Amino acid sequence: MSDKKVALVTGITGQDGSYLAEFLLAKGYDVHGVIRRSSSFNTERIDHLYRDPHERDVRLFLHFGDLVDGTGMREILSRVRPHEVYNLGAQSHVRVSFDQPVYTVQTDALGTINLLEAIRDVDKNIRFYQASSSEMYGKVVETPQTEKTPFYPRSPYACAKVYSYWQVLNYREAYDMHASNGILFNHESPRRGETFVTRKITRAAGRIKEGLQKKLFLGNIEAKRDWGFAGDYIEAMWLMLQQPKGDDYVVATGETHSVREFLDEVFGHLGLNWKDHVEIDPRYFRPTEVDLLLGDPAKAKRVLNWTPKVTFKALAKMMTEADWTLAKNERILREHGHK
Ligand code: NAP
Ligand code: GDD
Description:
By secondary structure, the chain is an alpha/beta fold. The protein has ten helices and 13 strands.
């Protein structure tokens, strides 16, 4: 029998899924990803993994599925027979979860139990990673937040993630499964979805610099987050599944910054003053807000030997540069009469 490791990743078309797929392929894994059928292409973040310039045998396989469809997920699991499952699939936007609470719960809460049940049925030895979230701390009861800090969720998204967190812990204890929660604080990258605040800012700043737009409409810019780089965080996910037993870990930088500070970094890098361009639009306020997140990654450092490499300033610069390049290309295309 081959000793090749096989991983199944839900949410492979998302920010984290794409970095994780790259990371696992580089480690020699066969990587299987679950993708949703869509009327337009949704594999942009992983397309480059099919186009290996060295024409090596890229072991990436995609399967149509949806976390809401438990029968389908079980069928994929039986066919793929992975050693490790990374559950990154989710309706991951906090603001949207107020507009679509039921769908968010179906995906982010019931989707997790669909997968846990499928694993229990197919092979209890499959190792399981759950994308838990610092949003679970919500209206924080202590700072910094650790693995022992009680949760106080403030959105349908956070409530669904709390449900999944406890199910993972419960399956670990009830069925002796290797199941882990990565309680990840916000992590960003040039591949971040464009409606999350960091990417919304870097995208707009690049376009403003290139004369393609004038204004940027934002909500609460006093909110503070512990922001890291997605490329660093996916390594912590993998490390969790290499431990002898499943456990729960906070993954964070240990620094917090406001949206306002992120604006300073990004616009400052481009020689612009954000106050000339930003307008506060109440449409982007949330019914309940999470004011401050700050994680203590001491356990991840001690047990996993994991440390974040990219600083807040370096992250802002990386994203600003990438989006400035996008904006320059957009301007050139426009000048040549393309849309
Ligand atoms: P993302 O970019 O929004 O990606 C979400 C992924 O989930 C996409 O591949 C999406 O597919 C897929 N998906 C959505 N609904 C699904 C469903 N019903 N069935 C199967 N797949 C579904 O999110 P991300 O930033 O990479 O985050 C990855 C995970 O970590 C999420 O669970 C998120 O909640 C969690 N998390 C993120 C952060 C962060 O700061 N990024 C922090 C803590 C936890 P489509 O491409 O088809 O939409
Ligand atoms: N999205 C967005 N858009 N957020 C804004 C805006 C805006 O125009 N203006 C201000 N904000 C504020 C939000 O109110 C929030 O306080 C903060 O910026 C960060 O918002 P997001 O970038 O949308 O991220 P999030 O913290 O709500 O959620 C992200 O991180 C979680 C981990 O803590 C998501 O990736 C979640 O999936 C993840 O679990």
